Amino acid sequence: MRGKVKGSAAVRRWFATAEDALETHRARLDLLNVYPVADSDTGSNMLATIRASRAAVESSDQEDLGALLAAAGARAMGSAQGNSGTLLAVLISGFAEPLSGQERLTVNALSRGLDRASLRGWSALSQPVPGTMLSVLDAARDQARACASAAVAPDSRAAVEEALPRVVVAAREAVAGTEHQLPELSQAGVVDSGGLGLLLVLAALSATVRAEQVDDHLLHGLSGWDAALKPSAYPTPSDYCACKESTNDEPLSGVELMCTVRLNPLKAAELRHRLDELGESVIITPIGSEADQDGNLRWRIHVHTEQPDATLEAVRTSGPLEDSSTTPLSR
To answer: How many CB atoms neighbour CB 219 within 10 A?
Structure first.
């Protein structure tokens, strides 16, 4: 993405840098995982998404940024786990769409990519809320848009190099604000873990474009961060049971269901409605954009449910099921 560097090499470095950052901070991100369920896996799930993305670009000979990132998003989506891991895969896929045909990143492409990622992210969730990684993404999008509008030479390397640190600063400010946007986070005295993970991914992008290192001090001072690895000073996930509504104040029961199914868009909309009845934290999003001869796409589904059998049957009834897995929510 810098100068004449091939797009494939730059994207590979971005995902490698993001993987290193998420690996370094995975334990803290897991401990800070409060919303939507305090199940201590946000960092692990986001790291898995980035690893899958990196594997996709490393096995590709594409030079087109859009094609490379689309392959990364599709690979990650097909194996994504958890709310945060699935949503990050959605955002990567969305970011890819406006970059089709480009071999380097410009400030206008950055702006368009973040805008499309936001649209895809908010659309994928049945009940999107502020105070999550979507709010962080939107802050980054708005700053990128402002930088693109103000750029004198928007196609220059300098324009995107100047924009990205500002995008990261805006994202960090949005992460700090998440503590006051969701009662679960305010009660725990922490910022959103998924938002933190996304901040690291954006910081890795900035570091790649500017040929720098990710600033390890970026997260210091954010609520909960400095105490996250001090068990005596920081609550464990079981202390967050009050963050989920329950009639008996017990931790949420049920499972996280992940699956892949082939559906046309109408069937996907009908299935979303049914999944909203059977569970919560519903994400349903297409994997890729190429439909088969019957007009069906592959869709990745994420849902928290206390009725796993009925939920899986609803998916099977909608269309051919390719794979499925369940993970207990109570940890």
So the answer is: 23
Question: Quick one: DSSP state of residue 64?
Answer: -
Displacement of CA 121 from its chain's centroid (Å): 8
Contacts of 128 (CB under 8 A, 6+ apart): 121, 122, 134
**CA diameter of the chain:** 60
What b/e sequence results for 167-200 when a residue is b if at least 16 CB atoms lie within 10 Å of its CB, and e otherwise? bbebbbebbebbbebbebbeebebbbbbbbbbbb
CA distance between the termini of the chain: 41
Per-residue pLDDT for the chain (331 aa), expressed as one digit of tens each?
Answer: 444 445 678 899 999 999 999 999 999 999 998 877 776 789 999 999 999 999 999 998 888 999 999 999 999 998 888 889 999 999 999 999 999 998 889 999 999 999 999 999 999 999 898 999 999 999 999 999 999 999 999 999 999 999 999 999 999 999 999 999 989 899 989 999 999 999 999 999 999 999 999 988 899 999 888 876 654 444 444 443 333 333 334 444 689 999 999 999 999 999 999 999 999 999 999 987 788 888 889 999 999 999 999 999 999 999 999 999 988 885 4
Could you tell me the two tokens for 142? 């708005």
Q: How far apart are CA 152 and CA 107, in angstroms?
A: 11
Token code pair at residue 211: 């040929």
Task: Kindly give the interhelix angle for 107-124 and 133-150, rounded to the nearest 10 degrees.
Answer: 150
Is the omega angle on the peptide bond into residue 286 within 30 degrees of 0, that is, cis? Answer: no
Closest CA to 87 of 55, 29, 21, 42: 42
What is the Cα 314 distance to its own chain's centre? 26
Half-sphere exposure of 184 (CA within 13 A, CB side): 21
Tokens 């594409």 -> residue: 62
Domains, the chain, in order of start with CATH, read: 7-229 (1.25.40.340), 255-328 (3.30.70.120)
Written as one letter, the residue type at 53 is S
**CB under 8 Å to 138, separation ≥6 — which residues?**
118, 174
